[in-house]
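explain this:
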Amino acid sequence: DGVGDALVSNTSTDYVIGTNDFTLEFWINMKDNFNGNQVILDQNKSSNNATTPFQIYGAGQSIRFYVTGDHITKTIVSRQWNHVAIVRSSGTTTMYFNGTSAGTYSDSNNYDSNQITMGASGGNTATQNMSAWLSNVRLVVGTAVYTSSFRPPTEPLTNITNTKLLCCNNSSVTGATVTPNTISIDHGDPTASSDSPF
């Protein structure tokens, strides 16, 4: 139902971005306005006592990239698929929304978390659950896949060089094309759907 559900990866050094370039992208279909703060993707701070994780979360009608404060914010339309890409290239992080830059952030942070939660904040099950659907979540560490405006992919994402995670893309809720270990249900009752951005 897209409410109160979350997935979590097992811990792995593959998810540690450090100060490298990276690309984290996904499609999201928001049910309605985000009620309060609802976390979409979270680098778990507690997984290895990470000092600088980031979050992508929703509030009202916007998606926000958060590190130690909101750095990039973009209004989102509900009840349709939208492509979001967070890309760091040579010390500048850009959030692309449907292929167009929504803003940039001068970013030299060492992202040292080794775990990712999708749909909630690192195990929090109360007010930060996401009311939306996710599709084709891909993390690429070491490569800025997009460095200028682009046409969002029209086919499911594939395993490109430096892909560390590619999930939410098949008929199994916890299945993945690429993952260093396993993905499990953190809470709720997520189900796969034939509805997709493609």
